[in-house]
Write a structure and sequence with these properties.
Layout lengths: L1 H7 L5 E6 L16 E7 L6 E3 L6 E6 L2 H8 L3 H12 L3 E6 L4 H4 L3 H6 L24
Length: about 140
């Protein structure tokens, strides 16, 4: 009986809000489904994504690369620090990194090989001298 009652109750769908400052063609889009109403674009005070009516409770900050994370820590440190402080005030908040941990562990060399925009304060990697072998980690 209870299962029948739960099945007949129509639950509202959640709606994802994507910050309008996310770059076109980058990031996430959540299509409509049985539980999700889809994605809308809007201006968010904190984070890149939230759920409509839960803006003061839920936020996700997306980082696409180690280079982006590095730029936030160094070139935009005050803005990023303020963002992290706002995220701390929320009950459910996260910084989601869309890259493997080895991109950080091998930073900046690995990052510069895959980044479309290297960090402005880090020089590009030098070409290896003839006969020189890079150290390997085992």
């Amino acid at each position: 009986m209870l299962a029948d009652l739960n099945a007949s109750v129509e639950r509202p769908k959640y709606l994802v809000i994507r910050d309008d400052r996310e770059k076109t063609g980058k990031g996430w889009h959540f299509p409509p489904s049985e539980t999700c109403g889809g994605t809308v674009i809007g201006r968010l005070a904190t984070g890149d994504y939230t759920i409509q009516s839960l803006e003061s409770t839920v936020a996700l900050e997306r980082k696409a690369s180690a280079a982006e994370l590095s730029r936030n820590f160094f070139a935009g440190s005050e803005l990023f620090r303020a963002e992290l402080e706002r995220l701390q005030q929320l009950e459910f908040a996260a910084v989601v990194c869309e890259f493997p941990i080895d991109h950080i562990l091998e930073f900046p060399r690995r990052c510069l090989q895959i980044s479309d925009r290297p960090h402005p304060r880090i020089p590009p990697p030098r070409a290896a001298e003839p006969g020189h072998q890079e150290p390997t980690s085992d």
